[in-house]
Amino acid sequence: MNFVIPDVVPAIPEIFMLAMTCIVLLSGLFLQRRYPSLPYMLSLLALVGAVVLTVALYKHTTEITFHNSYIIDHIGSILKVTILGTCFFVFLYCRRYVADRNILNTEFYVLCLFSVLGMMVLVSAYSFISLYLGLEIFSLPLYALIALQRDAARSAEAAMKYFIMGAVASGMLLYGLSMIYGATKSVDIAVVSQVLTSVPASQNLILVFGLVFVVVGVAFKLGGAPFHMWVPDVYEGAPSAVTLFIATAPKIAAFAMAVRLLVDMMPLYQVEWQHMLIVVALVSMAIGNFVAIVQTNLKRMLAYSSIAHMGYMSLGLLSGNAQGYSAASFYIIVYTIMSLGAFGMVTILSGKGFEMETINDYKGLNSRNPWLAFIMLLLMFSMAGVPPIAGFFAKLGVIESLVEAHLVWLAVLALVFAIIGAYYYLRVVKVMYFDAPEHQSRIDTTSMDTRIAISANGLFILVLGIFPGIIFNLCKAAF
Amino acid sequence: MYNWLTDCVFYVAAALLVVSSLLVITSRNPVRSVLFLVLCFFCSSILWMLLEAEFLALVLIFVYVGAVMTLFLFVVMMLHIDLEKLKTNFVRYLPIGALIVLGMIGLMGYIIAPEHFSLLAPAHHGADYSNIKELGTALYTHYVYPFELAAVILIVAIISAISLAHRGPRGRKSQDVPSQLNIQRNDRVRLVDVPAEKKE
Questions:
Q1: Which of B143, B145, B177 to probe by mutation at the A interface, max A CB count within 10 Å?
Q2: Chain A partners within 8 Å of B149 (Cβ)
Q3: DSSP letter assigned to residue B13
Q4: What per-residue confidence (pLDDT) applies to B168?
Q5: What are the structural domain ranges in chain B?
Q6: CA distance A39 to chain B (A)
Q7: Which residue among A346, A370, A404, B77 has the highest number of C-beta atoms inside a 10 angstrom radius?
């Protein structure tokens, strides 16, 4: 058997991440006594280094290596940089939170980095095996992260629920993939998509059957309804720093999985998965927006809002044209930046011994800290889709692609749900600006670096709204 | 080549596999469930043997039955789960559950029919064919990337398990000098007002 050593150059960012994660782990073990913030600094360094490597190795062509297991292409590079950047901000936001609570410091960063590594693998996966392994590498640390605050019973419950959801999702996905493998006899996405062009009619049924399970698995990972059941419980029960992480970066990874499995592998079955995604999108938008209205806990409200956002994002995917795919990727990136800011706000405002997680806690935030209240206002307006903030253009792009795909009725429904959804975002703004504060004390718990980070995050949303082309053109070039 | 003995073994093992996996989820005693799971693994290893995947069949018995299930049995015995409490709503949800399961089985029976897969029987190999050699070659060449990723999963699992279970060095009787120096009087001494009793 002749064996060609695969080209490892495209995978250097992943290799770097793995090496750095191990270094962080060892530094935490041996050097943390002397330099307490070393693991944190090294983690940030790992993320910056991985971004630099990903950008430096970017080429305009698509490259497949490791015997069809690994692909590096335009959309993959964009999503990887977004994931790494998101994790960078997550670390900035939650340094104090983690230090204040009984959470193991090094392990928190190490597990997050491993999860990021898994997401990078998943984004670049081009065979069922590497895709599934990437999925497991990114999910496994998340279960542990949620339970890392070990004395909190509700975190343990959230971890258990997230684990069961993840296990069911993996099971569904594997079952679907095994059906597709049975019909096409290949695990390589490139080969499968080629075989599908000449598949006999008798196997059609089995492929659709597999596709159903694949879509269910993807929807589970995206946290879309009707597979959302425990998502709000998990977001509420997890420590805010972990909620911040699981509400942002994994969504991009799940989106990448949807792109690889549906757009790259089964474009010929677009009609079939379009119907399934229409159901997911409609139910997600309905449940997300309606149930969020009655929530009193901000984390829980944002969880329902994330379900609704996943509905909007799938509208872009299901429209089935290049414009829709780029709109969906723009949407997922904007969503990540928005929820990074919103959950980040919850995390940095929670001080030692108290959590800022009910909406009532935000009463009169304007008089307690006007700048942070303004940033939160930007984020809430963006989530509601108020022009000229980025969330508006994200929704606009998705709806435009629906019209392009002659799904005007769906576009109208999406607009109706968006208007309903605006209510609960605006309620947070109302509480912050027009209600009397319950405590008069000024909030100055945040340190300089987190204040700069959250300001940059909020203002970026505004800048992105005024110049959406910065990222939109990148997404457009990908499809 | 038609071999009725092979067919016979297949059908017996497959039937036993289905029955034992049903018993895993229905038996009342968790220890019995684990034992039925062992039977499950044994039957599936027979199926693998019929496919001439000897190495995988043996590994399934050695690793899963020999190590994992033994561990499982320990855990189940030590935890002493009250299964009756878990099954309180069993009858309540049984009708709807049974309905869904029957629907699924019917659907799957219709779809996963052999004619929908254009399957051919795997080629038979001679006695000098080494299963392990082929597996090793494939694993370390073609599948080297997934192989390394699987290693990462193992590291992640180890780190996760330790960070969840490890609660700092407890058993040591080492002295923490800074905390000894920082101690306040109020942390150690508690003054209790004892109401004095009058002597008669």
A1: B145
A2: 121, 130, 133-134, 137
A3: H
A4: 66
A5: 130-164
A6: 15
A7: A346
Contact criterion met (CB below 8 Å) for A395 and A316: no
Tell me the H-state helices in A319-407.
Answer: 322-349, 365-368, 370-384, 390-404
- Name the pairing type of β-strands A63-65 and A70-72: antiparallel
Torsion, CA A21, CA A26, CA A28, CA A32, rounded to 10: -140
Q: Is the pLDDT of residue B14 over 70?
A: yes
Give residue A190's pLDDT: 92
Tell me which chain A residue has its CA closest to the CA of residue B117: A183
Query: Which residue, among B105, B137, B149, B162, would best test binding to A if mutated, counting the most A CBs under 10 Å from its CB?
Result: B149
Q: In Å, what is the CA distance from B9 to each residue of A161, A380, B13?
A: 41, 65, 6
Could you tell me which of A276, A249, A339 has the C-alpha nearest to residue A302? A339
Dihedral (CA of A229, A232, A233, A235) sign? positive
Q: Closest to B153 (Cβ–Cβ): which among A127, A136, A148?
A: A136
Cα(B155)–Cα(A110) distance, rounded to whole angstroms?
Answer: 11
Q: Which of A213, A123, A114 is nearest to A170 (CA)?
A: A213
**What three-state secondary structure class fits A58?**
coil
Which region holds residue B179: left if phi is over 0, alpha if psi is between -120 and 50, else beta? alpha
For chain A (length 479 residues), average pLDDT per consecutive 10?
81 95 93 88 96 91 89 93 96 90 86 96 95 95 90 89 95 94 90 87 84 94 90 93 94 95 91 93 94 94 95 93 93 95 92 84 89 94 91 93 93 94 93 87 76 93 91 87
What is d(CA B104, CA B115) in angstroms, rounded to the nearest whole number?
Answer: 19
Q: pLDDT higher for B172 or A333?
A: A333
Residue of A nearest to B141 (CA): A3
